[in-house]
Amino acid sequence: MLSLIIKSAIPRYLRFQLPAQALIRTMSTSDGPPSSPYTTLAISRPAESIQQRVMLSLIIKSAIPRYLRFQLPAQALIRTMSTSDGPPSSPYTTLAISRPAESITHVQLHRPEKLNAMNKAFWREMVECFNEISEDKDCRVVVVSGAGKTFTAGLDLMDMAGDVLQPEGEDAARIAWNLRRTVTKYQETFSVIEKCPKPVVVAVHGACIGGGVDLITACDIRLCSQDAWFQVKEVDIGLAADVGTLQRLPKVIGSRSLVNELALTARKMYADEAKSSGLVSRVFADQEALMAGALEVAGEIAARSPVAVQGTKLNLIYSRDHSVAEGLHYMAAWNMSMLQTQDVMKSAQAAMEKKSPKTVTFSKL
Ligand SMILES: CC/C=C\C=C\CC(=O)SCCNC(=O)CCNC(=O)[C@H](O)C(C)(C)COP(=O)(O)OP(=O)(O)OC[C@H]1O[C@@H](n2cnc3c(N)ncnc32)[C@H](O)[C@@H]1OP(=O)(O)O
């Protein structure tokens, strides 16, 4: 029961494996029953150690969502967390999460010894992570990168054998249904990036293979280092890419012929061609410059009105998938509410005073 409470109390992407005890007694309200953030429910923990109280108090202060929180400071201390079996500073086994600067969340693919190949945990954890980020008011922009010598080697060919090669089911219909479920589930792993209202900047170094291309085409801004290469590898392993590349890449790269060539031949595309074709917007000399560049772009986004930024992302994606007339119609409906934000007045005033948007304080969204 308590483990259920703590699991729901702290966003997973900011959480690491907590001891079974939760610290609920530390919370109190003036107008409700003692030891509770509620007015109609009293919550208590009959026994707990002081150590647990101190540790959990720190975590709760940094990460607890509003519905279980009572007047806490708005600090997020992601770096203080660690797990025994995953990367440092992360509640996940395949992702390392950090906050390199205010309002920026860095999600690093983190299985460097396997070239960040996408195993079953990865497909699940990305969904959990981005769903948390979507709700995290302290995050305005996300940077995605890969740990180790390469961005990602794509689908984990060892781990996926069961799901893909030996799907369960008593007959063809049931096998097919299970496969459909699997593919749909994996599609969500990258669709969550697109659904996340916070812009996602991806920084690619080294190889970006198969599922890696699916991932980056769901991101909003793609940057790479000079050593990066991209490969729509799926035909080489006997399948049609099924988690986003065939749907999104044609909307990213202008040339349909080039998309077809890449997807049908699995040839590698190197950084310069990725830039000239529009797959990436900038190429940096090396990984260090790439990460500095990605964080700089993220910083520019984070400094602007989150109402404006998130509305821009949502409407760009909507317009990509609709006619101009439909996009304009949607935009008008969007801005009939969003133009009422204080952010317009604050930003316009800063512009009139020739000040950077970085000097303006915007409320959380
Ligand atoms: C429902 C389906 C959903 C999604 C489908 C997606 C489709 C795809 O992603 S298709 C693409 C699949 N990936 C590949 O085909 C790439 C395979 N890997 C390679 O070709 C090479 O590893 C390399 C990327 C060219 C790098 O070569 P190298 O620098 O020589 O390193 P290695 O020694 O080969 O690898 C180091 C280490 O990583 C393991 N590894 C690499 N790739 C994968 C992978 N895709 N799956 C699992 N493991 C991988 C490799 O085995 C090595 O591990 P050791 O334990 O050290 O042996």
Automatic annotation (TrEMBL):
CDD domains in the record: crotonase-like
GO molecular function: delta(3,5)-delta(2,4)-dienoyl-CoA isomerase activity
Any one annotated GO CC term: mitochondrion
Alphabetical keyword list: Acetylation, Fatty acid metabolism, Isomerase, Lipid metabolism, Peroxisome
Pathway: Lipid metabolism; fatty acid beta-oxidation
Alphabetical list of InterPro entries matching this protein: ClpP/crotonase-like_dom_sf (IPR029045), Ech1-like (IPR045002), Enoyl-CoA_hydra/iso (IPR001753), Enoyl-CoA_hydra_C (IPR014748)
Main subcellular location of this protein, as a coarse class: other
GO biological process terms, semicolon-separated: fatty acid beta-oxidation
Domain of life according to the entry: Eukaryota
Function (record text): Isomerization of 3-trans,5-cis-dienoyl-CoA to 2-trans,4-trans-dienoyl-CoA.
UniProt xrefs under PANTHER family: DELTA(3,5)-DELTA(2,4)-DIENOYL-COA ISOMERASE, MITOCHONDRIAL, ENOYL-COA HYDRATASE
Protein family according to the UniProt entry: Belongs to the enoyl-CoA hydratase/isomerase family.
Protein name as it appears in the record: Delta(3,5)-Delta(2,4)-dienoyl-CoA isomerase, mitochondrial
Name of the coding gene: ech1
